[in-house]
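User: I'm new to structure prediction. If I give you an amino acid sequence, what do you actually give back? Let's try with this one:
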Amino acid sequence: MKTIYISDVTLREAGRAGTLSFKERVEIARSLDRLQVDAIELPPLGDAKSDALSNKTIASVVSSARVSAAAGLTAESVDAAWESIRGARKPSLHIMLPASAVQMEYLCHKKAPAMLELARALVERARYHTEQVEFSALDATRAEPEVLCQLLETAAAAGAEVVTVCDSAGIMTPAECAGFVADILEKVPALKSVRLGVELSNNLKMAVACAAAAVDAGAEVVKTAITPMDIPTTKAFAAYMTARGDEKGLRYGLRTTELARVAAQLQWMLQTERSSGSPFDSGVNEGAPTICLTAGDDIAEVVKVVRHLGYDLSEEDNAKVFESFRRIASKKHFVSTRELEAIIASSAMQVPSVYRIVNYVITCGNLTSAMATLTLEREGEKQQGVCAGDGPIDAAFLAIEQIIGHHYELADYQIQTVTEGREAMGSALVKLRSNGRLYSGNGISTDIIGASIRAYISALNKIMYEEA
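Assistant: Good question. You get back a string of structure tokens that encode the predicted 3D arrangement of the chain. For your 468 residues, that looks like this:
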């Protein structure tokens, strides 16, 4: 029986976009590990502090899968990637370099001879740290055949354990993919001593068929994603393996009984789109990568992060934020971006209430649309809004917009519990953008919808006060 290894790129690709929080990355890694994928790929380090901490945490919680950290184009980036995952049970380094002439020039500003030398140097540097090294030739199907073979041979000779060819453009049919894999195996004898992998774009909607053809031609590693991306989904490739694997003498270690449930959960976690016309119509995204501060950071560093998040605070508000940050940081290992934003919402720019909540009624269920009836008071005058929405919080925010007669961009929305038990308190954070500036509001209640409404009104009052 031939073993097929599944390497999941969900975190690598979603991490590049910066749309995942620290907790979401760790939860996705845990879920993939429970499914027993063979490797979990992580993106190159961006902001060294937060990304390195994320990688270290993932490395510590993953028990069976290989944790593969992508390195950059320098020896220093290889060292940094290794430091971030060296605590994993199965740490691995991933060198990714373009193989086509166009991408060599565009991404690395190098010709083929210089690229060969760079590949050799980076793989050897990675091999110095660990035997588990993968080399990926990006855009391999559009590369000059001779150059591609030289690149793959160089990587294998330098110590790469896995060598992957990428159809980044998604231009191959299954027959062409099988021929491509068979051809490089024939022309590069060094590949017989390593595992050959394929990463296939789903541009022509034939990625699973191409992966099956590549496996028939000799590939042993297939890159997949747990949720729909421009690559075969893990569920789709697992369906092929289940249907034809025994017949073809193939086996793999994935736990297919849990695959559908986990895939649905993670797809929901990665989903950011909302219905049109909603305050959530642009999705909810922090707009900046996660940044972690520690008790040793001074006020200048905290203010720098506050500005990086998009806030333009006065010196007085910056001082208030730093004082609150220092109290919290003294009790924790680090303060994350989301915690810092909660501090900003509760400490900075406290203003008189222009709008005050009088009452609200929310109705929702599985047989009816969510409906919000909301009454606000402004300068003694009561105003009411009634709106349906895509969920109770969406409906409540739409009702507020109806009352104030204006739509503000919802830059971020967060909820979390602050106490435990049946009567747990919920905390909501709302970030609104007005005239290019961010305003955040915080609300706390045993009713999470009420907390969300209070947070929105808190941010709205800051906008009204500032623009008055």
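You can read the tokens as a compact description of the fold. Here is one thing that stands out. The longest strand covers residues 368-378.
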